[in-house]
Hints:
The chain is mainly beta and 118 residues long. The protein has one domain (3-117): Metal Binding Protein, Guanine Nucleotide Exchange Factor, Chain A, CATH 2.170.150.70. It contains 1 helix and 10 strands, in the order βββαβββββββ. The strands form 3 sheets. The protein has a 5-stranded antiparallel sheet with strand order 4-9-8-7-6, with no helix packed on it. The longest helix is centred in the N-terminal third of the chain and has 6 residues, at 32-37. It is globular, with a radius of gyration of 13 Å. The mean pLDDT is 92. Bound molecules: zinc ion (ZN). The site of zinc ion has 9 residues, from loops. The site of zinc ion (ZN) has 9 residues, from loops. It comes from Candidatus Phaeomarinibacter ectocarpi. One of its GO terms (molecular function) is metal ion binding.
Amino acid sequence: xxxxxxxxxxxxxxxxxxxxxxxxxxxxxxxxxxxxxxxxxxxxxxxxxxxxxxxxxxxxxxxxxxxxxxxxxxxxxxxxxxxxxxxxxxxxxxxxxxxxxxxxxxxxxxxxxxxxxx
Length: 118
Ligand SMILES: [Zn+2]
């Protein structure tokens, strides 16, 4: 399975995911947090995610039922990934943080109804 690397904006936090395609299964979420972040996410199995650098710069945020954990860079503020509440066996990464991330114009981005979980 190919490995795709990614990072926050300042480069302090780096990560890698194993996935068949980096630009498949992309989704947005309509919960109140994701609405404010306005990002596109790529889910992977937890074992297919590796934090490759920057653990000391990593901050996290929990809210509501404290199940999901949202990670971001304490230097540049960019959200990099989170442990999913709807499926704790998965990590979702910020698709925009993947190196050379470009969403093809014809690509479908699904919607996760996270607002229903609030
Ligand atoms: Zn950063």
